[in-house]
Amino acid sequence: MTRHVLLNNIDHRDLRIDTRHGAELGDAVMLAPTFPAEFRALQAHYPIVFQRLQDGGFQPVALFGFQAGENLFLEAGDWQAPYLPLAIQRQPFLIGAVGGELLIHVDLDHPRARHGDGEAVFREHGGTTDYLERINSVLLALHEGLAANGDFSAALQEHGLLESFVLDITLDDGSPCRMAGFHVIHEERLKALDAQALGRLHAAGYLEAIYMATASLSNLRDLIARFNRRHAART
Asked: Rounded to two decimals, what is the model's pTM?
């Protein structure tokens, strides 16, 4: 269930946000949407892959696990990576358009939204806290970044730079696991692009993001190791 409402300092003066991490707080997710400007921060920790959308485009995502509802970065009641993706940081807030203006909304049914303990959203006399100011910046960056994904996706498709990706894993105990349904950068086609095509991608600001996404796949080894540890702990 979700209950999105426009945030205001009257109705929500006592709202507190639980900023801890855990499955019970909505963090048990396999992936999070992202965008090229975030790739540099993500690529050191998470694989970046691409998910096909219903309109035929592609959405880049940071991968946290191999199965729906699985987040291998949740360990010992905390998120085990130095960088937290913006799509996770923003919870339980979102941007909504009201009369053509972008304003902060909050999901009051989200497990992070509570009264009592947690980060205050508004000060005693109605002003916004430093926490809410940071969330506002996160939401704006996320909104603008995700809006730019359409052009990025179109450029990748124009040059045939995406290929379907299937990962077959054999766990330490011999158990098989397969992840499918995603796409990655086609490295051979990328290497084959001529100077003019590379120049256009660079001018659009996409070339660095493409290399970042490619480099991020080295994090699959760490993700598999996390999966093995999680699986062994359950058996």
From this structure: 0.93
CA separation, residue 60 to residues 27, 80, 209, 223 (Å): 19, 21, 11, 18
How many Cβ atoms from other residues are within 10 Å of residue 221's Cβ? 10
* Tokens encoding 104: 């902060």
Nearest to 213, CA basis, from 187, 195, 191, 192: 187
pLDDT at 195 over 80: yes
Strands (E), the chain: 4-6, 15-17, 31-33, 48-52, 58-63, 74-75, 78-79, 93-98, 101-107, 113-115, 119-120, 162-170, 176-185
Alpha-carbon span 52 to 48, nearest angstrom: 13
- H-helix or E-strand spanning residue 211: helix 207-216
Q: Give the model confidence (pLDDT) of 87-141 as tens digits.
A: 999 999 999 888 788 899 999 999 999 887 899 999 988 899 999 999 999 999 9
From the CB of residue 31, how many other CB atoms can be counted at a distance below 10 Å? Answer: 23
Provide the pLDDT confidence category of residue 235 given band limits of 50, 70 and 90: low
Q: Which tokens go with 57? A: 């485009």
